[in-house]
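Case study.
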Amino acid sequence: MRISELSRRSGVANATIKYYLREGLLPPGRATAATQAEYDDTHLRRLRLIRALIGVRGLSVAAAKQVLDTVSEYQTDTHQVLGLVLGIPQGGATSKAPRPDAEGEQHGSEADALLTALGWEVSEYNPALKVIDETLETLRSLGLDHDWRFLLPYAELARRTARLDLDELESLKDPLEMAERAVLLTYLLEPALMALRRLAQEAESMVRHGETTSPSPDSCATRRLSDEPG
Amino acid sequence: MRISELSRRSGVANATIKYYLREGLLPPGRATAATQAEYDDTHLRRLRLIRALIGVRGLSVAAAKQVLDTVSEYQTDTHQVLGLVLGIPQGGATSKAPRPDAEGEQHGSEADALLTALGWEVSEYNPALKVIDETLETLRSLGLDHDWRFLLPYAELARRTARLDLDELESLKDPLEMAERAVLLTYLLEPALMALRRLAQEAESMVRHGETTSPSPDSCATRRLSDEPG
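After joint prediction, the assembly is written out as follows.
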């Protein structure tokens, strides 16, 4: 297809596509004349990934190019591709960074303690580690007196969610497609997952408390009577 | 305690506390002299809740006042309090809004279809419904060709997460404390839950693919051979 059709089908402006071509984010098309080139579905898919990296993941053009270059280099390595998408610096994703051992020195990080308890092996460069510590600190400053143990059951459910994510990624064979899907799943699905939790909170509350929509001392009295050993 | 100590212990500026008193967000203290009042722990807790509603939940002062007034009114009703925190307009939380029935007219909303499949009873005013539809639309515009069925297993895990939330809320007896905790759990915990998912993605990927950190055609060949019947 011509660049105009690539623009139409991708929804990315002509000028932007040319910019990506100049910056090397998008590989050149097959030259058909001095000033014309032919593009194919690989270009369309690559454009979608660029859009996901810049628009969704919030990367700069330079950072997006680095991800794309590394995805091309480590094409067959799911773990490496996912690590890049998660924002783990190159090398950090593959190194099995040992968590501080139980008897060894403590980093003092609550996230470290949590991961050790869970037996999860993650890179020390995973940006999500900091979020755990920061959130617990904020919660404590607002009077919630829980430490990392509070997060243990939530973490177990997060692991099951991650298994769904990985299953989805592994259903794809093309590494570029996989990188794109990883960006979409990790970043774009987040609002929906939080919305599902809020809907579930209401639904669960309805099951547990929905009957007593107005204070109903009668039902309490009945309950108490029937609870008494007879 | 005096207002100065209330300020020190809550971390809320003196002038701000006086503003909340004037606006009726904070109940007046017990007058001890013409220009002096005595405050207690209920004021401290109420201040924390105001901070959570305005600072964390992002409500205006007027909206926060409305939540506080309704929390006082429906003190014994967990379901009502949670509904308010979730941003469901008053009345919406208690009405068992019927989902559009299977043979009846379709709203066309994917969130509706999802909830019907799950058997979840939620108010049609729950703001999270819109987020589900918007996210699916965005994902589709980026080439992910999944409909609401894709969210079903995620929703089941969200329901289990919500059960942890509700368990935590039900451990509290004081309705004001419960409202505060609901704000913290629903809004402030979100970044940590998403961080847990990202850590879990890496940990799960490490278990599934961590061994093949560099392309290793040998192991594939071995695998293929041993897979052959024989």
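Observations recorded in class. Residues 92-106, 212-230 of chain B have pLDDT under 50 and may be disordered. The longest helix of chain B spans residues 190-209. We will return to this complex in the next lecture.
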